[in-house]
Amino acid sequence: MGRLVVNNAMTVNGAFEAPVPEPDGWLVLDADSNQVSLEQFLVADAMVLGRRTYEGLAAVWPQLADDPALGLFADRLNSMPKYVASRTLRGPLAWNATLLEGDLAESVTAIKEMHGLLVVSGAGELAHALTTLGLVDEFWFWVSPSLWPAGPRIFDGVGPVRLELIGSTMFPSGVLRLAYRPAPDQRDGASS
């Protein structure tokens, strides 16, 4: 069975929405952490997205294919299969995407059986539901060295879910990549 990984950028104090790059926003984009992020997407088999994340990414990434700095990343994201969880969208979807039908737990379990590595981009409603259902195998957090005063905080209202650190990388820019998995007592379903 494949692994489902929630992958998200955030600030030190957990802000995750609208990661506008510096100097106007909090997101640090540097060559080292971008290369590691690209490598993770190169080995991923597919993405799992909520409606809002799907619509936002599908509006941006197809236009970045010729961008000198982001072209490789755009090529990978644009060509990768995507599965979209939505109660309001109707298929067929654009951007190499397929609508997940029926029960979320059943459809995600089915695609985990079809793929090795599935990346969930975003930390909104879908990531919350997958975490609560005990379907997330790992969390990859890209922490930018900023405190941000506005917006929701990552995984507000979810838990408790105990995590164990399985890896960390510090980049010269101050970006910190943290990899966690649910603690062994959490892996057979979410904690009550």
List the SSEs and their pairings.
Blueprint: E1 3-11, H1 31-43, E2 46-50, H2 51-60, H3 71-79, E3 82-85, E4 97-99, H4 104-114, E5 117-121, H5 125-132, E6 138-144, E7 163-170, E8 176-182
Parallel strand pairs: 1-5, 1-6, 2-3, 2-5, 3-4
Antiparallel strand pairs: 6-8, 7-8
Describe it for me?
By secondary structure, the protein is of the alpha/beta class. The chain is built from five helices and eight strands. The chain has an eight-stranded mixed beta sheet with strand order 4-3-2-5-1-6-8-7. The chain is globular, with a radius of gyration of 16 Å. The two termini are 25 Å apart. The mean pLDDT is 90.
- The side-by-side strand order for the widest beta sheet comes to 4-3-2-5-1-6-8-7
Largest sheet: 8 strands, mixed
- What structural class is derived from the secondary structure elements? alpha/beta
- Distance from first to last alpha carbon: 25 Å
Chain-averaged pLDDT: 90
What is the global morphology?
A: globular
Report the sheet-strand fraction: 25-35%
Helix % is 25-40%
Radius of gyration: 16 Å
Number of helices: 5
Low-confidence stretches: none
> How many beta-strand segments?
8
Secondary-structure element series: EHEHHEEHEHEEE
